């Protein structure tokens, strides 16, 4: 059996030419942002990748086909669709086998990108260890995926709704290189600061590409997390966001929100509590990540001596 993959025209062309490609996820479209900002952002992110010399490949499952790159119409339809499955490693294959439609999280997008031979992927923020995980055991499958699949994920750190110290601990245990771009502190999605030191720091996309090549040469499995701080002008300072996050988490508990619903619920609640400011920041950080991912993909595509 082969995986039914459909490449968009521009991705097929880039693959044939060996040109740089950046994978993009679709859960951020279906579960991370409201319509129509979700579709507008997805288009702007794709444009940003192109403007920096790479081809965007938004990944999603549509009626049982694994799409690597979406057309305008497919993107629009996905952005408006309701009750789309949020796919991770555990349910990805079943969705394809049953001919259903689903959006790919970071974990599933990494798997899809790897199947398509794409080594760099841009998103907003990875999933991680949720606060209270010692009770709920809620740890995102994104972390395991980073440990097994050789794709570099460019994100603005881990979402500040998470327990970031525990998220970094788990990444270290799993042997995932966490590279912060341009500062000594690990960023916290909407905020540049987290109070935690960068495990590794690299300020140049070519350095990141070289680290990827060396890891591959050494036969070490798994990917990299590149943590790219949100631009200063777009950030919401940590102190201002902390009470909002605490309130959103309390609301989630009061409503019995669990498992896959937690992250989408919290993002939506924080959007409401900040009067949309969190969405503005989210859009700015994704665009910023698309740019860096395109530069890393470009550096990889160049042969080095
Ligand atoms: N980045 C964003 N918004 C999002 C996500 C990332 O700016 O909604 C999604 C990704 O798909 C990521 C998911 O995999 O949130 C994490 O969900 P969970 O915590 O349930 O693993």
Automatic annotation (TrEMBL):
Keyword terms: Glycosidase, Hydrolase, Lyase, Manganese, Metal-binding
Residue sites binding Mn(2+) per the record: 138
EC number per UniProt: 4.2.1.70
Co-factor binding comment: Binds 1 Mn(2+) ion per subunit.
Subunit structure of this chain's protein: Homotrimer.
Family label: Belongs to the pseudouridine-5'-phosphate glycosidase family.
Identification of the protein by name: Pseudouridine-5'-phosphate glycosidase
Native organism: Pseudoruegeria aquimaris
Lineage: Bacteria, Pseudomonadati, Pseudomonadota, Alphaproteobacteria, Rhodobacterales
């Amino acid at each position: 059996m082969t995986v039914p993959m459909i490449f968009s025209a521009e991705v097929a062309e880039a693959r044939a030419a060996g040109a740089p490609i950046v994978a993009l996820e679709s859960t951020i479209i279906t579960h991370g942002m409201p319509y129509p900002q979700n579709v507008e952002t997805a288009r702007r992110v794709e444009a940003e990748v192109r403007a920096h010399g790479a081809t965007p490949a938004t990944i999603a499952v549509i009626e049982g086909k694994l799409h690597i790159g979406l057309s305008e119409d497919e993107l629009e339809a996905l952005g408006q669709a309701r009750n789309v499955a949020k796919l991770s490693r555990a349910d990805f294959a079943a969705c394809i086998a049953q001919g259903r439609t689903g959006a790919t999280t970071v974990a599933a997008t990494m798997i899809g990108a790897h199947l398509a031979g794409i080594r760099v992927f841009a998103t907003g923020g990875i999933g991680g260890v949720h606060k209270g995980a010692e009770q709920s055991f809620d740890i995102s499958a994104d972390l395991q995926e980073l440990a097994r699949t050789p794709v570099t994920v460019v994100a603005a750190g881990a979402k500040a709704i998470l327990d970031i110290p525990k998220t970094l601990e788990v990444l270290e245990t799993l042997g995932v290189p966490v590279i912060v771009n341009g500062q000594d502190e690990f960023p916290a999605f909407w905020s540049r600061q987290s109070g935690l030191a960068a495990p590794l720091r690299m300020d140049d996309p070519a350095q990141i590409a070289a680290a990827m090549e060396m890891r591959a040469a050494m036969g070490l499995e798994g990917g990299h997390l590149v943590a790219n701080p949100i631009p200063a002008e777009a950030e919401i300072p940590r102190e201002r966001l902390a009470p909002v996050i605490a309130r959103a988490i309390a609301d989630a508990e009061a409503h019995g929100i669990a498992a896959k619903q937690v992250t989408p619920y919290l993002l939506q609640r924080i959007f409401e509590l900040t009067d949309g400011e969190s969405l503005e920041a989210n859009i700015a950080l994704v665009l910023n990540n698309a740019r860096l991912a395109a530069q890393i993909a470009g550096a990889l595509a160049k042969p080095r001596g």
